[in-house]
Please model this.
Amino acid sequence: MSAGIPTKESIEAAHKLVMPYIHRTPVMTSQFLDNLCSAKLFFKCENLQKIGAFKARGGLNAILSLSEEQLKNGITTHSSGNHAQAVAFAAAMVGAKAYIVMPENSPLVKINAVKGYGAEITFCKNTPEERERTVQEIIRETGATFIHPFNNYEVITGQATAAKELIEDVAEPLDAIIAPVGGGGLLSGTALSAHYFSPGTKVYAGEPEGAADAVLSFRSDKIEKAPYVNTIADGLLTYLGDKTFPIIKTYVTDILTVSDEEIIAAMRYLWERMKLVVEPSGAVSLAAILKNKEQFQGQKIGIIITGGNVDLGKLPF
Model:
């Protein structure tokens, strides 16, 4: 396991390691959304990734980097869904047992997928403290190796490969890339990939107003919790970690907040205009661009659509 902030070489190595197991997801464009935003948008469609989310990258990189010894008692994590699926999927790939802690109100589509990969689920109350406590209990009982959903350098390195591909697959240099932020695994990886592979590209984050901890942390220079948590973007409810925050502080230009109404409007555009199944968390990046059109006018912008694991019985429109 790496000891420090991912390097250019470690991101390249992670990309080689995970490539046989993941899709190189398409980069799509929309004339309609370009016109609406007065910018040129390039959508990196991680909703079309294995397990339906970018998290497959980080989960695979972390688990493929473990030794036989670390794998023998299985793997455990806590997650409301996409990282849970990533760990269950990657554990199945290496033939290890997966013990997943999920909040009791996790979307059914994500619970069923985790079960489908053969993982054992333990439910808990939906607070970071309860998730952590339940995982520690499993570690005591089983000796499983814990893979943190975002505050883990191997996970961050794996997530960085999405932006690396985006930069490689868009012929022209991007002015900006925007990713959603929850715990910051994807955002810190994206910021590092831009720094190494496209130094002229600025990185922004989109964050729900109803889980606005990263923007507070970014302004105050220390890890903060959100003043209140109430958002449709269930994948972004967690706060930053001590590994993700310093990277974000160093390499991210700004964090832009959006309301649930703005997230739903962006999600609807992606469904109707681009025919893409996108979950609310995955639409946050586009929502932030739509809200701040003047700031991004005339620019070439990479937008990471993070996932498409949405409960079709509970669409917000």
In short: The two ends are 43 Å apart (CA to CA). The chain has two domains: 8-53+153-314, 56-146. The first helix runs from residue 8 to 18.
